[in-house]
Specification:
The protein has helices at 2-6, 36-59, 78-107, 116-137, 144-172, 177-183, 185-198, 236-241, 246-254, 271-288, 296-303, 305-336, 345-391, 395-400, 403-424, 426-445, 449-493, 495-501, 504-554, 560-601, 665-672; strands at residues 622-631, 642-650, 678-680. A 3-stranded antiparallel β-sheet has the order 2-1-3, covered by helices on one side. Helices cover 66% and strands 3% of the residues. The chain has 21 helices and 3 strands. Among the domains are: 37-59 and 76-202, no CATH class; 234-263, no CATH class; 296-460 and 556-602, ABC transporter type 1, transmembrane domain (ABC transporter transmembrane region fold, Up-down Bundle), CATH 1.20.1560.10; 622-680, no CATH class. The protein is mostly helical.
Length: 682
């Protein structure tokens, strides 16, 4: 089988000779059974057979969201039409190449063996044409699981062929038709993945609680379905280039923007949509695991997992492209010194440097924008969750969480958690960038890199105790801020009483004392933060000094190539080292804020189980029926607030509740609403 597929072992010629004018080279073109080309084509054939099997298997199944109507060419999106044309032509190119190789071998009287020379292009052309046209034009009629699996396999397959084609082109210094087709395969796979992604739009039902959007004067000028941000319907190219902002920027250039000019957020970014997705996931977690309560952190991470992974990919791409700059500079200096590896290497390096910097800028913009968007969604979600929780708080929980503290959860804690996604990926990109920078330094100055590594490790170790102190001071600062806001809110709410009893000076002194305590913890936190900043801002200077001193003592030759590489790489070391204090500060603040909000969301709620909504026939003549009830605001109070209460109110009956101050009139009304727990009675 291997002999028929790969041919008998014989001396091979240049791999680029097959597919060119000299077709006789196809007979000896890496024909040995152990040749890399045969192994590569064998893997390609197996992948093509797997993709074809998945394709025919998907035809026997019904898609989960199958579209029962046939779309005309004009109804397809530009992305679908481009993907269909591009991949169709690409598959046709593979098919023509396979037939051409077979025809040329037949014409000059050579055998069809080895099969891999012409059979693999034929199979690949057939597979890519069928799958490319089907996925591009009939995405909604295919099953979701098939599409996801096919997207993963085809992307991996295209990446494999593209990388091996680049390696072959760099090795033989020539481009063949097969190599060009393999290089064009990765954009085709990317277009198919984008077709799969943007053909599955999220469908939202009608907005519940429409009365909440109706103003009391009856003039409802708010239309939630109109004037939505262009970002919600922008194409992929528009999102990458931020072209969707042109309309509002043009309007702002012509005249100052007003509130009516600002578009509304899309449903996926509104607090309603984010909170609905969060509650749905929480309910699923509770249903699947009733033994313990679900984790708020992992539920939030699961709701935004896709955007986190996409932004993480752009963060990784940014670090890799930024790290390629010193390597390209080193190669460019070698070319300038006359050490060219091949012809026109300088032009290729200049073009590569341009594309690397362009890709770095693009990936960085996408990284920052997507993480800021996640932060906006998290802040909206947590604000809605805090608001909904505040409506259901039990009386005991209201004693622990005052109105000032709840406002602090919304204004301070939710904001800090919303800022955290922007810094989240820097928790691992700083380490990755440092590792890449040290590897480049090692290739430039050799063993002298050890001194730079020692300085960085010592800097991080010196920062560890300061980070623990920062976490402690941040917690104390938030507690002091809660106490001050609680006192200020109580003073403002009861200002009339303060004026009547002339207690202004006393409350002023109390608030000033609370401000002094808050200032004490704030100054301690900022002072440690200043220590961190000083430590990390001086570390790049120490790194460069230690490295050059080590080069001097070890006798490492300092030439133009390694000196310029070292200077360019030093910036890669400076950026992550200088950002470590800010990253640590944001992580500490977000951790403290998240713990406070989770503590509030886990507070006990009102329990209305003691209220019977479906009354028996004996009691159906009453609208409100309370018999021998003992009521208490606090569950562990020694004495109930109201004892032996019996109230029977018929429909339409008017009842006056009379009593002196503090006798329990409001308690009785709150008990009817279910806000006061009942100990005994009905």
């Amino acid at each position: 089988g291997w002999v028929a597929f790969c041919g008998e072992s014989q001396s091979s010629r240049n791999a680029s000779d097959c597919g060119k004018t000299d077709t006789s080279a196809c007979s000896t073109f890496l024909g040995a059974t152990h040749s890399p080309l045969c192994i590569r084509n064998g893997i390609s054939l197996c992948m093509n057979i797997l993709l074809l099997f998945m394709f025919f298997f998907s035809l026997t199944r019904k898609g989960s969201r199958a579209a029962r109507r046939n779309l005309h060419w004009q109804q397809l999106s530009r992305l679908q039409r481009f993907s269909a044309v591009y991949n169709g032509i690409l598959g046709l190119g593979y098919t023509v190449l396979g037939f051409w190789i077979l025809q040329e071998r037949w014409r000059i009287g050579q055998a069809v063996i080895p099969l891999h020379l012409w059979l693999v292009p034929l199979f690949q052309g057939l597979t890519w044409t069928l799958l490319g046209l089907t996925v591009s034009l009939r995405t909604e009629q295919l099953e979701r699981n098939f599409l996801r699996l096919w997207a993963f396999i085809s992307s991996f397959f295209a990446l494999f062929l593209t990388s091996t084609a680049i390696l072959a082109a760099a090795t033989y210094k020539e481009l063949t038709t097969k190599i060009v087709l393999d290089l064009l395969l990765l954009p085709g796979s990317l277009s198919l993945v984008l077709c799969i992604r943007y053909s599955r739009k999220i469908e939202y039902g009608p907005i519940d609680g429409g009365d909440l959007y109706t103003p009391l004067n009856g003039k409802n000028e708010l239309n939630l379905n109109e004037h939505v941000t262009p970002f919600s319907r922008a194409s992929l190219l528009s999102r990458f280039s931020f072209w969707w902002m042109n309309s509002i920027m043009k309007k702002g250039w012509e005249a100052p923007l007003e509130e009516k000019d600002i578009p509304k957020l899309g449903m996926e970014d509104q607090a309603q949509g984010c909170y609905a997705l969060f509650t749905e996931r929480m309910n699923k977690e509770k249903a699947n695991n009733k033994s313990r309560s679900p984790s708020f952190f992992w539920t939030l991470a699961f709701c935004h997992r896709r955007e986190i992974m996409v932004s993480g990919f752009f963060a990784f791409l940014k670090i890799v492209t930024a790290s390629s700059g010193p390597m390209l500079l080193n190669a460019f200096i070698r070319v300038a010194e006359g050490n060219e590896s091949f012809k026109y290497e300088g032009y290729i390096l200049a073009i590569s440097l341009f594309f690397a910097k362009a890709l770095e800028s693009l990936s960085q913009r996408q990284w920052y924008f997507r993480t800021r968007r996640i932060g906006l969604q998290l802040r909206s979600l947590l604000s809605a969750a805090v608001y909904q929780k505040q409506l259901r708080l039990s009386n005991e929980a209201k004693m622990r969480h005052s109105a000032g503290e709840i406002m602090n959860y919304l204004n301070v804690d939710a904001y800090r958690i919303g800022e955290f996604p922007f810094w989240f990926h820097q928790t691992w990109t700083t380490s990755l960038q440092l590792c890449l920078a040290l590897a480049i330094l090692y290739s430039a100055v050799g063993a002298a890199t050890a001194s730079a590594l020692i300085v960085i490790v010592l800097t991080v170790l010196c920062n560890a105790p300061l980070a623990k102190l920062q976490h402690k001071f941040q917690t104390k600062l938030m507690q002091a801020q809660d106490e001050r806001l609680k006192a200020v809110s109580e003073a403002l709410v009861n200002m009339k009483v303060l004026k009547l009893y002339a207690w202004e000076l006393h409350f002023k002194s109390v608030i000033e004392e609370l401000r002094k305590v808050e200032y004490k913890w704030l100054s301690a936190f900022q002072l440690r933060k200043a220590y961190n900043s000083f430590l990390f801002w001086t570390s790049p200077v120490l790194v460069s000094t230690a490295t050059f001193a080590t080069c001097y003592f070890l006798g490492v030759p300092l030439q133009a190539s390694n000196v310029f590489t070292f200077v360019a790489t030093l910036r890669l070391v400076q950026d992550p080292v200088r950002s470590i204090p800010d990253v640590l500060g944001v992580v500490i603040q977000a951790r403290v804020a998240f713990a406070r909000i989770v503590n509030f969301l886990e507070a006990p709620e009102l329990v209305n189980g003691h209220i019977k909504r479906d009354i028996s026939e004996r009691e159906n003549e009453y609208s409100v029926y309370i018999k021998s009830a003992n009521l208490a605001w606090e569950g562990d109070a020694p004495k109930p607030t109201l004892r032996n209460i019996t109230v029977m109110a018929r429909l339409g009956q008017k009842i006056a509740i009379c009593g002196e101050v503090g006798s329990g009139k409001s308690t009785l009304l709150s008990a009817i609403l279910g806000e006061v727990p009942i100990r005994e009675g009905t």
